[in-house]
Amino acid sequence: MSDITLALDVMGGDFGPRVTIPALAKALNQNPTLSFLLFGDENQITPLLKKYSLTNHPKIQIQHTEQIIESDVPFSTAVRQSKNSSMRLALEAVKEGKAQGCISGGNTGALMGLAKLLIAPLPNIERPALTSLIPTMNGQSTVMLDLGANIDVSNHQLVQFTEMGNIFAEIMLGLVYPRLSLLNIGTEENKGTTQLKEVHQYLKTRLDLNYIGFIESDKLTSYLTDVIICDGYTGNIALKALEGAAKNIISLFKKEKADSNICRSAKSYLLKAIFYRYYRKLQEINPDRHNGATLLGLSKVVVKSHGGANANAFYYAIDYAIQQIENDIPNKISQGLSQLDKK
Fold first, then answer.
1. pTM of the model
2. From edge to edge, which strands make up the β-sheet containing 4-9?
3. 135-181 pLDDT, tens digit each
4. Nearest of 145, 147, 78, 89 to residue 118 by alpha carbon
5. What is the C-alpha to C-alpha distance for residues 167 and 164, in angstroms, rounded to an integer?
6. What angle do CA 171, 176, 179 make, to 5 degrees?
7. Distance of alpha carbon 235 from alpha carbon 121, whole angstroms
8. Would you say 27 and 109 are in contact if contact means Cβ atoms under 8 Å apart?
């Protein structure tokens, strides 16, 4: 791996340095050529670096700041309060070319808004889309966008999300002619909003894209498609419902297992007998490995980690950023869209 420098918002997320520093330690152990620019409270960072034997490490630089953006403030307030914050300084390091990517688990709206203000979008991209890989029941991944960056979108923007998602899937998943679907309340031609039906009809005419039609939210993990396209409002609700359902089902089995009551034990046995195959599949899906969503459509890599991520999950967000930098995702998205414009 060639040398890569990452800007880390150390204070972002629910646990700040207690998660970001051990994740950084694991990343350095796995990738010795990595370098990190750390932005946050040096008084909190230094003891943890010492704990992981990283004091005065040549690949780590710290820029001290006590300013953070709170997780619950609205975007307009966050922007006004962002000067000298760990998040803004990390993004500015990317803007100035000091780092090739930024990772933060902080306020989602602030990160997206500041990233769009500070980092240039790709040519002709109207809005970047929050994009992630979601696990499926057969062990493969599906690209999904937008997951919350854009609540209201135009038809043209949905088409741009489709084009970017197509290129992203080709590169990140190694696919040729990825299957593309619009998220809708049904698969029939007459279902959905006027906007979805119009975009659906247009995408059917695009012979350069492998558009296969609508997909419903109960099929998100069925691997019936490679890219799922939606507006940020719909995508965010669908993703959180999926995450919540998976966590609740797994916790249900664990709760039943821990209960010594004979009736509950019998109930647990019956549940596992009926749903054993699906339960095993859920266990095999490691949610930590799919932590991290990227703002696709920017000229640099910006990855949003889940605010409640543990150290292992944050490590995978770092790794997700590394993969995109190594694959030169922003430039390849730009090149791919440029070729489409010439057709």
1. 0.88
2. 60-64, 34-40, 4-9, 101-104, 301-304, 293-296, 129-135, 141-145, 227-229, 179-183, 210-215
3. 888 888 999 999 999 999 999 999 999 999 999 999 999 999 999 99
4. 89
5. 5
6. 100
7. 21
8. no
Contact by Cβ (8 Å): 39, 7: yes
**Residues 6 or more apart from 3 whose CB is under 8 A from it?**
33, 34, 35
Which pLDDT does position 42 carry in this prediction? 97
User: Any idea of the CA torsion for 93, 98, 99, 102, to the nearest 10 degrees?
Assistant: 0
**Which H or E run includes 158?**
helix 155-172
- State whether residue 40 is helix, strand or coil: strand
Q: How far is CA 82 from CA 62, 112, 229, in A?
A: 18, 13, 31
pLDDT tens digits for 102-125?
999 999 889 988 999 999 999 989
Q: Which amino acid belongs to residue 256?
A: E
Q: What percent of the chain has pLDDT over 90?
A: 70
Give the C-alpha separation, 144 to 131, whole Å.
6
Nearest to 234 by CA among 156, 144, 147: 147
Measure the CA–CA gap between 162 and 321, rounded to whole angstroms.
21
Candidates 304, 300, 303; CA nearest to 328 is: 300
Half-sphere exposure of 277 (CA within 13 A, CB side): 3
Q: Which residue has the tokens 């930024």?
A: 102
**DSSP classification of residue 287:** G
CB 308 within 8 A of CB 294: no
Q: With b meaning 16 or more CB within 10 Å and e meaning fewer, what string describes 28-46?
A: beebeebbbbbbbbeeebb
- Pairing type for strands 141-145 and 129-135 reads antiparallel
